[in-house]
Design a protein that fits this description.
With 336 residues, the chain is of the alpha/beta class. Helices cover 35% and strands 18% of the residues. The strands form two sheets. A six-stranded parallel beta sheet has the order 3-2-1-4-5-6. It starts with 20 loop residues before the first helix and ends with a helix. The structure holds guanosine-5'-monophosphate and manganese (II) ion.
């Protein structure tokens, strides 16, 4: 499919730069068909947020589809309706279907297979810093821990019943984006909302087991290799490592097996910022994590990426060596 950027950043001609909960709810009621879009290399937030809102809209009799470039990761296949997620769309999709982008600062995060879209058909639900406000309606709540909790505000305003399935999707978004209630976005409200979701039937034990345990043996061995070759620089404040094609082949691992590595690099005593360079499948993708002293969202932004103050990422156009040098320079420029 052709990729057309018809979206003019920050200047909605036929929409709202900052939509209220009421604006969004009115639009959800008005439309009859929806396509939920999740970002490439999907995580529990982008998927859980869309699945939760989609489940509620289906219960209201609406047509709901899920569009995602990449397959659902193994550890998220327990999510209700995740088997409905696909790269293809029905031929009879109504022209006025609302495309709901969850958890992305830009449409480019949805990948290369998006059909051309008109802004008037786009709803942007997100909690990232520096969201580009690409929708007709932009529901961007930067203080929320996950896009799922933005969706929860909408479900309440809609008066939609929160079923155990919806509650599980929403608790997944929270547990994913707080790192299992560990990151600094874990406020007292996060615990209150999580308790409420458990009361509504969210299966916390299943989420813990499927997302935070249940790792393949290949992943464990890959983590070992990546940690063994980690480097410590800048007086012990910067820790980084690499996963490349040869390592994936050696351990019969894939990209989904790399997830946990960065946490170990960041957890080293004295480390302010950790970086993992994922140089495989023809790309150099970089994950950055900070303890809060250095803004890694700004650092990633210098190289075309983005994310949050303490967690960000980017895809580097160039060699691994150039990526290592450029990321180090961007971090130093941000005060590392
Ligand atoms: P991860 O390191 O887990 O891939 O990503 C960490 C955070 O950075 C996530 O919030 C993710 O959405 C964001 N992020 C990762 N890669 C990119 C990117 O290429 N562009 C933007 N804008 N954000 C990214
Ligand atoms: Mn998120």
């Amino acid at each position: 499919m052709e990729v057309v950027d018809m979206i003019e950043i920050k200047k909605p001609e036929n929409g709202k730069l900052e939509a209220t909960t009421e604006d969004v709810v009115a639009e959800l009621r008005r439309r009859a068909a929806f396509v939920f879009v999740s970002h490439v290399k999907p995580d529990g937030d982008t998927l859980g947020a869309g699945l939760a809102l989609g489940l509620a809209l289906r219960a209201m009799g609406k047509r709901v589809y899920y569009f995602q470039q990449d397959p659902v990761p193994r550890n998220l296949r327990f999510l209700p309706d995740s088997d409905r997620v696909s790269r293809s769309l029905p031929a009879d999709l109504p022209k006025d279907a609302l495309w709901v982008f969850c958890d992305m600062s830009d449409t480019s995060r949805a990948g290369e297979y998006l059909p051309p879209l008109e802004r008037r058909n786009i709803l942007d639900i997100d909690h990232h810093l520096a969201n580009s406000r690409f929708g007709a309606l932009n529901y961007v709540l930067e203080t929320e821990c996950s896009t799922g909790t933005c969706v929860l505000h909408l479900l309440r305003a809609l008066g939609a019943p929160i079923t155990p399935q919806i509650a599980t999707c929403l608790l997944t978004t929270i547990m994913t984006d707080t790192g299992g209630f560990v990151h600094s976005n874990t406020t007292a409200d996060v615990f209150r909302v999580s308790a409420e979701l458990m009361d509504l039937g969210a299966d916390k034990d299943e989420i813990t087991e499927k997302i935070f345990a249940n790792k393949r043996f290949a992943a464990t061995r890959l983590i070992g290799a990546a940690l063994e070759s980690a480097r410590l620089e800048r007086d012990g404040k910067y820790c980084w490592s690499v996963v490349d094609d040869a390592m994936l082949v050696k351990f019969e691992a894939d990209g989904e097996d790399t997830e946990e590595i960065i946490q170990h690099l960041r957890a080293v005593e004295g480390v302010d910022v950790a970086a993992l360079f994922k140089a495989y499948e023809g790309d150099v993708r970089v994950s950055l994590r900070s303890n809060g002293r250095v803004n890694v969202q700004s650092a990633a932004g210098r190289l075309g990426g983005g994310g949050h103050f303490r967690a960000s990422g980017l895809t580097f156009a160039g060699s691994l060596d150039d990526a290592v040098a450029a990321v180090r320079a961007a971090l130093v420029a941000e005060g590392l």
